[in-house]
Design a protein that fits this description.
The complex is a heterodimer of chains A (about 650) and B (about 220).
Chain A (H helix, E strand, L loop, with lengths): L1 H26 L13 E4 L2 E4 L11 H14 L1 H4 L31 H10 L24 H19 L11 H11 L1 H4 L38 H10 L14 H14 L1 H8 L17 H14 L1 H4 L10 H4 L24 H10 L16 H13 L12 E5 L11 H4 L4 E4 L1 E2 L14 E8 L3 E9 L7 H4 L2 E2 L32 E7 L20 E8 L2 E8 L6 E2 L8 E7 L2 E9 L16 E9 L11 E2 L3 E5 L1
Parallel strand pairs in A: 3-6, 3-17, 8-13
Antiparallel strand pairs in A: 1-2, 4-6, 5-16, 6-7, 7-14, 9-10, 9-15, 10-11, 11-12, 13-14, 15-16, 15-17
Chain B lengths: L1 H17 L2 E8 L10 E2 L4 H4 L2 E2 L6 E2 L2 E2 L3 E5 L9 E7 L2 E3 L2 E5 L2 E7 L5 E6 L7 E4 L6 E5 L3 E7 L6 E7 L4 E3 L5 E7 L2 E9 L3 E9 L2 E4 L2 E2 L7
Parallel strand pairs in B: 1-20, 1-21, 7-10, 9-15
Antiparallel strand pairs in B: 1-17, 2-3, 4-5, 6-16, 6-18, 7-8, 10-13, 11-12, 11-14, 14-15, 18-19
Classes of the chains: A alpha+beta (about 650), B mainly beta (about 220).
Chain lengths: ~650, ~220
């Protein structure tokens, strides 16, 4: 009887999951070309390939599919996701969104030659009516070998088909043996065959895939450094960790996830030792949160400044005085979380989740635990309340149109001018430049916020973006406010000016911090837009690029990612001013609506729609040239 | 019958108890060293004192301090104990501590400001915990042999080392570089001398009755 009941439950779950998947599919509809849009012949690396009768030259086998999975993990997963659902790390960064291979209208309904064409020729090879200039899909010809492309196709079709099959086979009792099979199939590609965190996917993952041999797990309900409970492991597998390459494995049958837990515990000797010594878990219990009060907020602020700001910074933008000490840039570059972006919190941004992170700490990171020996529950809640005020209540939505508001009088060049406070903020996501030339998989800068206005003669943009480290040279030329160290108690403060560390003469970073706004040179022409990644030979772009050193904004033209060329001195007409405060750059950049150099400069007029895009370089992280954060095109309209 | 067995056992063990050796020696560094400068605490002057000595390489007339000497051999057993580390004047005291596996480390703070003790251990459970002034001691069990680096995430000059040894036969060299490991059962062992900055040296030793003398010059040390 019980058996029957659980079967019905599983069937019901499958139906619900199927329904949800279908809904997601609707919301993120993949509007790619149909099979009839496919050309009959394409040129691949100089060869004419007939798509009509094309079939795979590689015989499909378990081995080729496994190799395909590895190629997929190394090259495709950051956008299309480990689960093939188009929800990779940059799934929300590029528009159109990366293809969801589980969607009924996606690759499974199309011939293999269609997918071959899409991979080899990418976005730039799309027919014009599918806006090839908007697609972030690279053309893989010349990068991936022919046989590798076929292997990855075999993997995508096999894996997508499997995912779409209903899961009605009755599940055996959870066992470590079963867990070992599930692990080999789903987890080993990143976490490694023996759990060392060293699978082929480890190379593109930051943070690295967990090494299970040592038994240190980041998210637990047990104190820092202790092994997790079974339920902790089960929950991470089920929920995944957002903002990393670890997806949620909800779709696996529950017993398979329970089997995985049993198997993972065999990979480290810590779990067996724990039982042998007769130890028990000291699980942190999260009480119900108290009501939010202003008094609690006030206490929370004081606690935060004293105990958290050394790493998270005064405004929570990970720019504290100790931050650089704890971030190991050459290896993992795990920054303290930017608390003004709660949608990036790995564990989640609900009050109880933040409470748990404060009480348990995050193993393998510098985030300590604040045990009841230091803070009572009430004080932890005070901190939670304050942390929540550092962020907007929900993730800002990207507006359909960037409205350039019309105003009378001069356009303020100072980013702190109160007039800017009255303008609408527009949030634009950025992704790593992983398309062409030298790529960057884990950029620190993941969005910009933009305001714009014009006065019929000039146009001005106000942009801010978070960067935990300022280019020191900016202190010489502009206003820089850095988070101070947590204050000492009054009786321990030293007023002796000689005790202040002598200010060093600021030196510029090796690579400047930089940002560029991009427009098509010829506005929105009828023959299509330039390719969103710095244009193409037929459609050049105009960039307004501000750099921290030498500190100025210059007009640049490009017709491809490696062709950025600064215009001549006589053609420069931008005005700009930038400030840095508590881990955030704010910049105003402006120009006349029209210029004499119509060949190279974008011309603006009221009522006109013009595409805009953004490129940002974090110089202190070594970003320069084609290594940068990039955005898709977004429409802009002058009032 | 049982009585006879006990008697035989006692006969066998009795000489063993009396029969043990001592390893004595000196750790020196005969290479060139430039004296390390003390860290000036600046605005932390009132909380930490004006200067923090740099303890990462302490040499007195060639004698090398804070070398951990540990004896490795299968039959050597650990005897767990309690050890104490303090956070005082923005330093860890002692700067190098050694203890056999399964010992407990009591961490204490005597300072009027926050510290965040963070251990970079992989075999043992790592520690990462904030200490506020006047806080109770925190007790941590160290279960595996490992050399563990300790840092304060708030004060970059604060470092120390916890050396967890596989057994109770270890020593830390004193100010003049002298050390002694006593009551060692006779046998063949490996003696490892480890220093945080200079690296480690390993020697095969045979212990019989009485005293043997082993000296280490860290000019031969291998950097880790």
């Amino acid at each position: 009887m019980a058996f029957n009941k659980s079967r019905i439950q599983i069937r019901l779950n499958a139906a619900i999951i199927g329904f949800i998947l279908a809904l997601c599919g609707q919301a993120y509809a993949f509007t790619g070309p149909s099979a009839s849009d496919m050309p009959s012949v394409v040129e691949v690396e100089g060869r004419q390939v007939s798509l009509k009768n094309l079939s795979s030259p590689i015989a499909e086998s378990e081995q080729t599919i496994k190799e395909g999975a590895e190629i997929y993990i190394k090259n495709c997963v950051l956008c299309h996701g480990d689960l093939l659902d188009g929800k990779g790390l940059f799934g929300d960064s590029f528009f159109p969104r990366p293809a969801n291979f589980l969607h009924p209208q996606s690759v499974l309904s199309k011939p293999l030659s269609y997918t071959y064409w899409r991979i080899m020729k990418g976005g730039p090879g799309l027919p014009e009516r599918y806006n090839p200039w908007d697609s972030a899909m690279p053309a893989w010809e010349g990068t991936l070998k022919e046989e590798d492309v076929w292997k990855v196709i075999q993997y995508i079709y096999t894996a997508a088909q499997e995912r779409r099959k209903s899961k009605e086979t009755p599940q055996a009792e959870p066992s470590a043996n079963r867990g070992s099979e599930v692990y080999a199939k789903n987890c080993a590609v990143c976490h490694g065959d023996t759990g060392g965190g060293d699978g082929p996917g480890a190379k593109i993952s930051s943070p690295f895939p967990r090494n299970f041999i040592k038994g240190h797990i980041k998210f637990r309900t047990t104190p820092f450094g202790k092994i997790p409970t079974d339920e902790d492991l089960f929950n991470i597998i089920t929920e995944g960790t957002p903002g990393t390459t670890m997806p949620a494995w909800k779709h696996l049958p529950e017993n398979d996830r329970r089997s995985l837990v049993l198997y993972l515990k065999t990979l480290s000797k810590k779990f067996a030792k724990f039982i042998k010594k007769g130890k028990t878990h000291k699980v942190v219990v999260v009480p119900d949160p108290p009501a939010f009060t202003l008094a609690s907020l006030e206490r929370g602020k004081e606690l935060f400044i004293q105990n958290c700001s050394a790493c998270h910074g005064i405004k929570g933008r990970s720019d504290g005085t100790s931050t650089k000490k704890i971030v190991n840039l050459p290896t993992d570059a795990i920054w303290p979380r930017n608390l003004s972006k709660p949608w990036k919190f790995r564990r989640g941004d609900k009050r109880k989740e933040i409470f748990l992170t404060l009480r348990t700490g995050l193993s393998l990171t510098a985030m300590p635990r604040f045990s009841p020996r230091i803070f009572k529950d009430e004080q932890i809640w005070d901190l939670v309340h304050y942390v929540q005020t550092l962020a907007p209540s929900q993730k800002p939505k990207t507006p359909p149109i960037l409205k350039v508001e019309r105003t009378d009088g001069a356009l303020p060049i100072d980013p702190n001018d109160p007039l800017w406070q009255t303008m609408d903020s527009n949030f634009y996501p950025l992704g790593g430049q992983i398309i062409q030339s030298k790529i960057v998989q884990y950029p620190t800068i993941d969005n910009v916020v933009v305001k714009a206005m014009h006065n019929d003669s000039e146009i001005a943009f106000h942009i801010h973006w978070d960067d935990p480290t300022v280019d020191p040279i900016l202190k010489k030329f502009s206003e820089v406010v850095e988070s101070p160290a947590p204050p000492l108690p009054a009786h321990l403060r030293s007023d002796d000016p000689e005790d202040e560390e002598p200010a060093e003469e600021p030196q510029p970073q090796k690579f400047p911090d930089s940002i560029a706004i991009q427009f098509p040179v010829s506005g929105n022409s009828s023959s299509g837009k330039p390719y969103f990644l710095n244009g193409d030979a037929k459609h050049p772009v105009n960039l307004w690029q501000w750099s921290s050193y030498p500190m100025k904004a210059v007009e640049v033209n490009a017709s491809g990612v490696d062709t950025l060329t600064t215009q001549s001195e006589t053609s420069q007409s931008l005005a700009s001013k930038a400030t840095f405060k508590y881990g955030r750059y704010s910049l105003v950049i402006k120009r006349q609506l029209t210029t004499e150099d119509t060949q190279n400069d974008t011309q603006f007029r009221a009522g006109q729609s013009i595409p805009i895009a953004f490129n940002v370089w974090n110089g202190s992280a070594g970003e320069t040239g084609s290594q940068k954060s990039i955005s898709s095109w977004f429409p802009l309209i002058l009032e | 019958m049982r009585l006879i067995l006990y008697l035989i056992l006692i006969c066998l063990l009795a000489p063993g108890l009396a029969y043990s050796g001592t390893i004595k020696g000196n750790t020196v560094f005969t290479g060139k060293v430039t004296p390390l400068e003390a860290y000036k605490t600046g605005k932390y002057k009132k909380a930490c004192g004006p200067e923090i000595p740099n303890e990462t390489l302490l040499i007195d007339n060639k004698g090398l301090k804070n070398v951990v000497l540990s004896l490795h051999g299968r039959k050597l057993k650990p005897k767990a104990g309690e050890y104490v580390m303090d956070q005082k004047d923005c330093r860890y005291v002692p700067h190098v501590i050694a203890m056999p596996v399964d010992s407990e480390l009591k961490i204490h703070t005597s300072d009027p400001i926050n510290h965040n003790i963070h251990t970079y251990s992989f075999e043992n459970d790592p520690i990462n915990i904030m200490f506020t002034p006047d806080q109770e001691e925190y007790v941590h069990e160290l279960e595996e042999a490992e050399i563990v680096k300790v840092e304060c995430d708030l004060h970059s000059w604060m470092t120390s080392w916890i050396v967890v040894t596989p057994n109770s036969y270890f020593a830390i060299s004193g100010k003049d570089g002298a050390f002694e490991i006593a009551d060692v059962p006779p046998g063949k062992y490996k003696l490892i001398a480890w220093h945080e900055t200079l690296g480690s040296i390993s020697r095969d030793v045979t212990v019989g009755e009485g005293e043997i003398k082993i000296n280490f010059d860290f000019i031969e040390a291998e950097q880790e």
